[in-house]
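My main concern about presentation is that the manuscript never shows what a single data entry looks like. In essence, backbone conformation is discretised, so a fold becomes a row of integers matching the chain in length. An entry of this sort, consisting of the sequence and the corresponding backbone structure tokens, reads as follows:
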Amino acid sequence: MVFRHIIGLAVAAAILPLAVPWLGFVFVLAVGKGLAALGVAMLLRGGLISIGHALYFAVGAYATAFLMRDGRVQDLLLLLVLSTITATMAGLLVGAFMVRYRAIFFAMLNLAVSMVFFTLLSKMYHLTGGTDGLRVATPTLLGFELSRAAFNPILQYGSLLLMVGTALIVDRYLRSPLGEALSAVHSNEVRLEYLGVSARSVILIAYTASAALAGLGGAVTAMAVGHIVPELSYWTISGQLVLIAVLGGIGGTPGAFIGAFFLELIRTFAVGFAADAWNAIIGIALLVVIFFLPEGLYGLLMRVRKQEKAQ
């Protein structure tokens, strides 16, 4: 079921830009945020709300920029791997501290760490470019230098493949005993401990994996935009990631990507047709979904499928 849904989304995202080319860039941004939101959705399954995951989104983006500085690493695939590893290590380090806390303390501590990182990025001008940010050059692919025009379609379709692969891997993880243990943290953590399973270890693994996903999304976004700024780690980006996860629904891994595509499309059209009121349009759209679709857009899709089967 998940395979069909994520493949269907990828096919739609691959075909639509053929008719409307500028949608290709929007969809790459949606995949970048969808990857990060998928990490947030994983934690939501364990009853953990992180409003600081923009930290890892920015770590992935800045790792890409630093690796490309002075031509150290230029290859697209190597950049994605190394940026994800950097975010993973950051997630492991911070997560070892975060697993001690739950509920509002977990959420606020994540927010605090991300805002400290934002301040460092803004103030360390000699290293990070300060508020001006850093330029991200066009990567090479397997040693071949590409123009920006040739690179964009590769990133567009490559990011869709990345979306499908990541969604299936995370779905497999959530269905594994380790993933079931993460859900058990939310339902009854004490009983989980009585069964001999360390809740902190389960959370640390999930937290580290979610940081890796956010870092991967940040790397994709940095390559698509070609420029990064400290605002990538700001609390508003963290809020967007939580919003996307809730909007799409946490009932399945396609939910995070459906929410990301929906939000990016709404925002793009709202900015284009009502530049002075796009925030209000997005807010109204989100309120409608939250009030009338508590299980998110993916939950609506699953409900429709069940009704069709029942008939």
Notes: Residues 74 and 139 are 5 Å apart (CA to CA). The radius of gyration is 19 Å.
